[in-house]
Design brief:
Length: 259
């Protein structure tokens, strides 16, 4: 059995670490490079950085920032936000990112997933999906809709269908980010995560809602997730990455421990 992973998400806005609740009320809370180093030293498995305004502002991601991070940590990290081409993805890989996350641009042109996977490998290509709960319709039978541009633009695209499409096109992992749970600390969207994890054959990373160690256990077991992404509970010092992994290990979840 593969080890489950704990991944810290760092949202970046204007070079600052930022945090929001349900994608609103965003506040700057620190230096993302310093935080990345802290989490690396504390034993986190991976990091993911999202430039949360790059797509909305139609600008490129900050390559210099990625190079700074790569010089500070020696674990896998991925980067998302503003990636619109193979050239963008290649620049990020060359700057030190092991993986890239595509989101808004992939919805606009799904072939982008295949192009990036062909260029840098499926294992380095992550489809990140921002998802909101909606009423079931013929167009959205799952009751979950894909939202783009930093969570502000609904697409009418069914989340389950899009997850399957992403896998078929070559994505090596999926990030399932629940807008409804984001920043609430009330727990992950278990139903959504399990629905998608059971429908695909690639790793699923659950995102949005972690407030205590039990939430990670729940999504990794009942939610069938391969990894749990956390943000607020470590950014504000409620828990350390090491403490979260020790809790999971103590409850029989296979995780990579570093001492």
């Amino acid at each position: 059995m593969l080890s489950k992973r704990v991944i810290v998400c760092l949202d970046v806005r204007g070079g600052k670490l930022a945090k929001s609740v349900k994608f609103f009320d965003t506040k700057d809370i620190g230096d993302p490079v310093a935080k990345a180093r802290q989490y690396y030293e504390d034993g986190v498995d991976e990091l993911v950085f999202y430039d949360i305004t790059a797509s909305r502002e139609n600008r490129d991601i900050m390559i210099g920032f990625v190079e700074q991070v790569a010089a500070q940590i020696f674990i896998p990290f991925s980067v998302g936000g503003g990636i619109r081409s193979v050239a963008d993805a290649t620049k990020l890989r060359n700057a030190g990112a092991e993986k890239v996350n595509v989101n808004t641009a992939a919805v606009a042109r799904k072939e982008l997933i295949s192009e990036i996977a062909d260029a840098i490998g499926s294992q380095s290509t992550i489809l990140s999906m921002d998802i909101r709960r909606v009423f079931r319709t013929k167009e959205i039978p799952s009751g979950y809709e894909i939202v783009v541009n930093g969570g502000v633009t609904p697409t009418g695209l069914d989340a389950l269908k899009w997850a399957k499409t992403g896998e078929k096109l070559g994505a090596g992992e999926l990030v399932i980010n629940s807008i409804d749970a984001d920043g609430t600390k009330d727990g992950y969207e278990i139903k959504l995560t399990r629905m998608i994890a059971d429908a695909v054959g690639i790793p699923v990373i659950a995102s949005g809602g972690a407030g205590k160690p039990e939430h990670l256990y729940d999504v990794l077991t009942a939610g069938h997730a391969d990894a749990a992404l956390v943000a607020s509970i470590v950014h504000y010092g409620q828990y350390t990455c090491r403490a979260l992994k020790e809790y999971l290990n103590g409850r029989g979840i296979k995780v990579r421990m570093s001492y």
